[in-house]
Amino acid sequence: MAHDGMSREEYEEYQKQMVEEKMERDAEFATKKAERACLRTCLRDKYRLPKSEQDDITTQQAGDDVDVPEELIKMVDGDAPQEEEKESIMQNLQNMDVDQLKEKAQATFVEMKSKAEEKCTVV
């Protein structure tokens, strides 16, 4: 019995090839899905967000074969210096004398106002 102009052997070979291609696509999809789950886990760890059971399950199903691409790891790690900088700025703000800061801001404002008045005689 022929199917769409193919002999039975050709049709069986075609079916076999289609099943193999589907298995390859499914394996690639599972790998990509596990990589994304691993990346989300890294981001959750970095930003101290709650863990996701679904991501943990996906990563476990993939086993140790999951490797997050280097570019994505660099993107995740690239934010670390900014966080350290933010923490140091916050620490400096906490250590700063508020009265001294107010005085400096007021002096800067008065200085800018006087320079503006010198340059603008319309007012």
Description:
The protein is mostly helical and 123 residues long. Helix content is 78%, strand content 0%. The chain has five helices and no strands. The termini are far apart.
What's a quick, concise take on this entry?
The protein has 123 residues and is mainly alpha-helical. It has helices at residues 8-46, 53-62, 70-78, 80-95, 98-119.
Number of distinct beta strands: 0
The biggest sheet amounts to:
none
- Which percent band covers the strand fraction? under 5%
Tell me roughly what share of residues is in helical segments.
over 70%
Subcellular location: Synapse
GO molecular function, one term: syntaxin binding
InterPro entries: Synaphin
GO cellular component, one term: SNARE complex
